[in-house]
Specification:
This protein is an alpha/beta fold and 389 residues long. The protein has two domains: 4-167, 3-Layer(aba) Sandwich (Rossmann fold), CATH 3.40.50; 174-374, Rossmann fold (3-Layer(aba) Sandwich). The chain has 15 helices and 15 strands.
Length: 389
């Protein structure tokens, strides 16, 4: 895999960058979190300083394969320009269909943003001809969207195979952070939250091989409680997870990895209660972890060299049940361990806690791709960048 810093730019004039501008917005299309935009800035600025024409490519939402005003970048481009402090030439859907990428700066380098790539049929089909309609106009293709790199889409996979390609700087850091978790001999702790066991079982199985300890929180822990014959009443659970949990415990036993569960929880009634006293209760929902669970986490973190955190510890969207996640964010921000944050609602917890990303070893924006990479899967986006041209 080539590195941007080692490329000779003498004959490189036109550069495509697959960025992740799939930003969260409110009902008025105001961007509510600019993290992904900020993460693209270093790579864009690096290419810009090489006096190259830049073509930014991204998806936004999950539109069907044709134009949908709801998912158009035309609603967001002014905010992109303000946040990135760049002037962007917008290539509309109709313009691309009529003229392709012929809007190349002649007198001076330009930075263009192509309309939502998922409007085009060839994107999701990973179509060679569609990919070449873009890369035939380019000298270099850069993937700076690790978050999409688990997709067999044209802008993720095929385009990078067509021409000289390299990962963006943040993409490289994502890979290094994941390798650090999987391969480092240092003592590692994984803190995994969220709701579904089924979406994270392969990640958990992989982590039992690389981590000394795994703490399971969030609604996911309810499934483990139930497996261990602990009353969870009306709490959110995922049906049919018993065999998955059995596999996780079996794998952990074979690798001497310890599985930890919360020892106390916060109920929908706002009552703190020890887990071993839940048998005395009825008609309740578990919605967060509480004080003694936080103490266990603190001890585990102190005894670890590397910590991975993915997924909230409770129903973070409700402020009454977000303290478990917020307190964990504070705890991890001040530890001496290398902390890797695994994207998604975990980033929301950090922002709610008011902690800066600089307080952590690495904060991923990738979500699903990050978890799949932990499973030792060969992601299509990474595979394509290994093509030797």
């Amino acid at each position: 895999m080539k590195s941007l810093k080692n490329l000779n730019f003498e004959k490189i004039q036109n550069v495509g960058i697959r960025v992740d501008f799939n930003v969260p917005t409110d009902k008025n299309f105001r961007i509510t979190d600019k993290t992904r935009l900020d993460r693209s800035r270093e790579t864009i600025d690096f290419i810009k300083n090489k006096q190259c024409n830049i073509f930014l490519i991204s998806h936004f939402g999950r539109p069907k394969e044709n134009f949908d005003k709801k998912y158009s970048f035309s609603k967001l481009i002014d905010q992109f320009e303000d946040i990135l402090e760049l002037k962007l030439n917008f290539i509309s859907y109709d313009s691309f269909l009529d003229r392709g990428l012929n809007e190349i700066g002649v007198d001076k380098p330009t930075i263009s943003l192509l309309e939502n790539i998922r409007f085009f049929e060839g994107e999701i089909k990973n179509d060679l001809n569609f990919s070449k309609s873009i890369t035939d106009k380019l000298d270099l293709y850069v993937n700076e969207a690790f978050s999409a790199s688990h997709r067999f889409h044209s802008s993720v996979n095929q385009m990078a195979k067509n021409i000289l390609s390299a990962p963006g700087f943040n993409f490289e850091r994502e890979i290094l952070a994941i390798d650090n978790i999987k391969k480092s001999p240092k003592k590692k702790l994984a803190i995994i939250g969220g709701s579904k066991v089924s979406t994270k079982i392969n990640t958990l199985l992989s982590l039992t091989s690389s981590c000394s300890d795994i703490f399971i929180g969030g609604s996911m822990a309810n499934n483990f409680f139930k497996y261990n014959s602990i009353n969870v009443s009306n709490s959110l659970i995922e049906e049919g997870t018993e065999s998955m949990i059995e596999m996780i415990y079996s794998s952990a036993k074979s690798t001497n990895c310890k599985i930890h569960l919360p020892t106390d929880v916060l109920l929908d009634s706002n009552e703190n209660i020890l887990v071993n006293e839940l048998s005395k209760k009825s008609d309740f929902k578990i919605l967060d972890i509480s004080d003694s669970s936080h103490t266990i986490l603190e001890k585990l973190i102190v005894n670890s060299d590397i910590v991975l955190w993915n997924g909230p510890m409770g129903m973070i969207e409700d402020n009454k049940f977000s303290n478990g996640s917020i307190n964990l964010a504070h705890l991890l921000a001040k530890t001496k361990a290398d902390v890797v944050i695994g994207g998604g609602d975990t980033i929301l917890a950090i922002n709610m806690a008011g902690e800066k990303f600089e307080n952590f070893f690495f904060v991923s924006t990738a979500g699903g791709a990050f978890l799949e990479a932990l499973e030792n899967k060969e992601l299509p986006g990474i595979e394509a960048l290994k093509t030797d041209l």
